[in-house]
Design brief:
666 residues, alpha+beta, TIM Barrel, Immunoglobulin-like, 7-stranded antiparallel sheet, 24% helix, globular
Length: 666
């Protein structure tokens, strides 16, 4: 394989610019969904009590080095030019404080080098979901629980975390809505384990000043170890030209920062004007009491179509077995700091309702007071290794729907890298192009055009956040995508019954098409979630993590290993033409999947040293295509084998490029 020489990228306002002066659009994928769990048998489809947490290995995630050529070749053939490459804090530092896994670090660096050979830009994502594997997600190493005085073995059985390995009946298999409901892991963000750990991670100095670990406040201790793990990877890949930088932290959440101690959010109110979301509606005090082994009856909200809102329909008793997660003689640090008091008779007193809302005379703001300094520390950390690296900055995953400002401390050379999903589709694993519900507004769309308009509106709000970064910033949607076991996994049944056409994947193709149409209209960058080499159609497995199944590839669909496309799911929805690099400024981009017509307009700049390059996939043009160029005294070359068109202009002008399918000739 001939190596692909990659030009280093830099930022100018909303654009990525290569060394030739061209504006680059990054279209990529997350690699991969199973990087959250150890290799080879660490997926949530395997029972575990996590007792081996110090001995696990992540070498082989996302795939063994020996398989990298196959997967990188496929992803390149599908037109991707960028990878959001996952790792976790646990993968680097699982054995104990500063006991880094050198073999894993060498493996990860080799993977980055190999990706560059195949023409992929990379940014490194230190991934987490709901804190750790022991709390139903992934991310942080287990030994941190011991450091803060928590017995991780009690987290699930106490109800302080919602963990598949604790709830799921492995002998029964399949979907288990009665035991482990679809996408129920997201509720962990409201459970005590996450409330405690995230509050300590971001704001331990303010809300747990008395909790020290090895002489440092818990916040400083946690942050320094997180940054230390990041540095270990950074040192090994510092000189690779394809590495653009690092994600700050996947989907950070505030824990209890900014919340009243006893408030339960059941709907818009003077205390919290935001719409309530389905799930448990407990208060921080509820969580603290549960963590101490006190059973609590907590409201559960369910979405009511008639009310077009999440409403309180039942209560649930949490921790009926009265199990404390705190080690013997250990109280929670917020009690020690004066938030509340647990009395010897089991009663309790609220001492400061605004404990998590005020520090002295200052009312706290999570984005400005905590995310801003965090962004600054991460940027400083990685730029000590490579001063040119970009920070891919992420706020709370729901913040994009409300379009807040980035914090004032957001450093230069940052990318707006938030995430976006069709929330209802993600939560229910259901999609129809003739019906879509916006859970945030209650609006119902009844046609594909209306659904696309909503997607464009929501993504546009996220892109608008880039304008709040000083000097502007590119927008790269770090995650978006669909479940492939949509609508009761009907596509899998049809596939096994012998249907190898696109028909079973129609809903998936349409959903992805609408999402990419919105991205095209907004001319923003993206990395789709995800490509998982180990994916399985088995409803207990999917991407190997909490029954999620969003991988665009599966061995279970691979009927012909010699065919680079075999194993791909709903390719027609995401393998599509786009302008990868533009000799000028992109103005409009549009693709009609049904007719196969691609239109791209740009304001040409002949001073850029290289030509415009457009990806032209055989998936969309199996019989070839016709290329038309007008304006700028432009000329074009079409390389069907290389799946690209090259457009060279000679003078400044508005240039229009149209690509059409060749008519069928019998």
């Amino acid at each position: 394989m001939a190596k692909t020489a990659l030009s280093r990228l830099h930022i100018e306002g909303r654009w990525f610019i290569d060394e030739h002066g061209r504006r680059v659009i990054l279209r990529g994928v997350n690699l991969g969904g199973d990087c959250k769990v150890p290799y080879p048998d660490g997926g949530t489809n395997f029972p575990s009590d996590f007792s081996n947490h110090r001995e696990v290995s992540f070498i082989g995630r996302p795939f063994p080095i020996g398989e990298a050529g196959e997967h990188f070749s496929r992803l390149r053939a599908w037109g991707f030019n960028c990878l959001r490459l996952l790792t976790t804090w646990e993968a680097v530092e699982h054995r104990g404080p500063r006991d880094y896994d050198a073999a894993y670090l060498d493996y990860f660096a080799e993977l980055c080098r190999f990706a560059g050979d195949y023409g992929f830009y990379i940014f490194v994502d230190f991934h987490q979901d709901v804190w750790s594997r022991m709390t139903g997600g992934d991310g942080a190493p287990c030994w941190l629980f011991e450091k803060v005085g928590i017995d991780y073995r009690r987290l699930a059985e106490s109800g302080c975390a919602h963990v598949m390995q604790h709830l799921y009946d492995y002998a029964r298999g399949g979907r288990q809505e009665d035991r482990y409901p679809t996408m129920s892991w997201v509720q962990n963000e409201r459970l005590p384990a996450n409330g405690i750990m995230w509050t300590l991670f971001f704001a331990g100095r303010d809300f747990a000043p008395g909790l020290t670990i090895d002489g440092d406040n818990v916040q400083d201790y946690m942050l320094e170890h997180y940054l230390g793990a990041q540095r270990e990877i950074a040192r090994r890949i510092r000189d690779l030209p394809n590495v653009m930088g690092f994600d700050s932290l996947n989907e950070p959440v505030p824990g209890w920062i900014g919340q009243p101690l006893t408030y339960r959010h059941l709907g818009p109110s003077d205390t919290n004007p935001d719409r309530a979301m389905p799930g448990l509606a407990g208060s921080p005090l509820d969580g603290l009491l549960v963590s101490h082994g006190i059973a609590r009856s907590i409201p559960v909200l369910e979405f009511d179509p008639a009310a077009k809102a999440a409403v309180h329909k039942q209560d649930r008793t949490i921790n009926p077995e009265r199990i404390s997660i705190w080690a013997r003689g250990q109280s929670d640090p917020f009690q020690d700091a004066g938030a509340w008091r647990l009395n010897n008779d089991g009663s309790f007193d609220v001492l400061r309702e605004d404990f998590f809302q005020r520090v002295g005379d200052r009312k706290v703001n999570f984005i400005e007071d905590y995310m801003g300094p965090f962004f600054a520390r991460v940027a400083e950390n990685i730029r000590q290794i490579n001063p040119d690296w970009m920070l891919f900055a992420e706020l709370d995953p729901l913040s994009g729907f409300f379009g807040p400002r980035f914090p004032a401390e957001t450093p230069p050379n940052s990318v707006n890298a938030g995430h976006w999903y069709d929330v209802v589709m993600a939560a229910t694993k259901m999609f129809s192009p003739n019906f879509s519900l916006d859970v945030l507004t209650g609006e119902i769309a009844t046609a594909a055009e209306q659904i696309q308009a909503r997607y464009q509106r929501e993504l546009g709000k996220m892109a608008g956040m880039s304008e709040t970064v000083k000097g502007g910033a590119p927008t790269l949607i770090g995650e978006f995508g669909i479940h492939f076991d949509l609508n009761g996994a009907g596509a899998y049944r049809a596939f096994y019954a012998g249907d190898r056409s696109d028909a079973p994947w129609t809903a998936h193709i349409i959903a992805l098409d609408l999402m990419y149409n919105a991205l095209d209209t907004l001319l923003i960058n993206s990395t789709q979630w995800n490509y998982t080499a180990s994916n399985s159609n088995d409803l207990a497995i999917g991407d190997g993590w909490n029954q999620e199944d969003l991988s665009i590839f599966s061995r279970d669909q691979q009927t012909d290993p010699a065919d680079i496309n075999s194993g791909g799911r709903a390719l027609a929805g995401f393998v599509r033409p786009y302008a990868q690099a533009t000799q000028g400024i992109p103005r409009t981009m549009k693709f009609d999947r049904i007719s196969g017509t691609f239109e791209f307009m740009f304001e040409s700049d002949p001073s850029a040293a290289r030509s415009t390059e457009i990806f032209v996939p055989r998936v969309q043009y199996p019989r070839g295509c016709v290329l038309e160029v007008s304006g700028g005294n432009g000329n074009a070359e079409l390389d069907l084998d290389g799946q690209r068109a090259v457009v060279k202009v000679e003078r400044p002008d508005e240039v229009r490029v149209v690509i059409r399918r060749k008519a069928w000739a019998p």
